[in-house]
């Protein structure tokens, strides 16, 4: 009987220790996830502060200029990367939209083949639309 109580007490302590470490691990994973999401902002702020400290310190003016130029160039490249990544998403959306429009117009053309009286007029309008879509596709 006493051994059973000791066993239950040890199991209870073990469960509490395991729960504590699981909670700590979950908290650390949450902090890492937040840091990973906010890292572009955090890194930019930390590096900017470091450059501010270096430029406002008593270093040689040439070194200050080089540090500031490298930082500015890095921000320019980083901003260009983010801008191009956003541009590629927009291009993909425009291409998908053009494909959808093209399918709809081609279905109109298929329907026009059944009706002979308006066939030539519809074919010319569809041809004009398709050349317009092709020109847009080349620009994108």
Explain what you see.
The protein is mainly alpha-helical and 140 residues long. Helices cover 91% and strands 0% of the residues. The chain has three helices and no strands. The protein has helices spanning 2-55, 61-112, 119-139. Helix 1 (2-55) crosses helix 2 and helix 2 (61-112) runs antiparallel to helix 3 (119-139). The termini are far apart.
Features:
mainly alpha; 140 residues; single chain
Structural class: mainly alpha
- The overall pLDDT, averaged over residues, is 81
Radius of gyration: 32 Å
How far apart are the termini?
A: 80 Å
DSSP strand count = 0
**Low-confidence blocks of residues:** none
DSSP strand content = under 5%
Number of helices: 3
Share of helical residues? over 70%
Overall shape: it is flat
Biggest sheet features:
none
Order of helices and strands: HHH
Break the fold down into its secondary structure elements and pairings.
Layout: H1 2-55, H2 61-112, H3 119-139
Helix pairs in contact: 1-2, 2-3
Brief description of this entry?
The protein has 140 residues and is mainly α.
